[in-house]
Amino acid sequence: MKQLTLKALFISAIAAMSMNTQAADDVYGQCIADAETVISVAKKDGGTAAREVEQKTDVAQCMAELAKIEAKYGDKTVARNPSSVMTPEDRAAWAKLFDAIDAKQYKGVPYLQAVYYR
Prior knowledge:
Elements: H1 2-25, H2 27-45, H3 47-51, H4 59-71, H5 88-104, H6 109-116
Helix pairs in contact: 2-5, 2-6, 4-5
């Protein structure tokens, strides 16, 4: 019985790792991962070191992902903030991507706090 439980834990750990790898393979996941890397390096080593981090995606690719999220809502977003018509899940993803784009450009609250308060 004990071996069966350990096997199940091992298999679930491998499945979780493969899902995390898959999530980081898409452009959205890479944008978020780049931003988290920039912020963590800024916390540890400062702004100069954060600017030297090699990023997997550029800002234009991340902006295209942002446009994909907004495109789901079509004309509903004309002359208003797109987040006002989004579902809560899309709004959270949209906001997280917006913060990631700011961090990739070395600005925004999370990045600036990481640099200032390190």
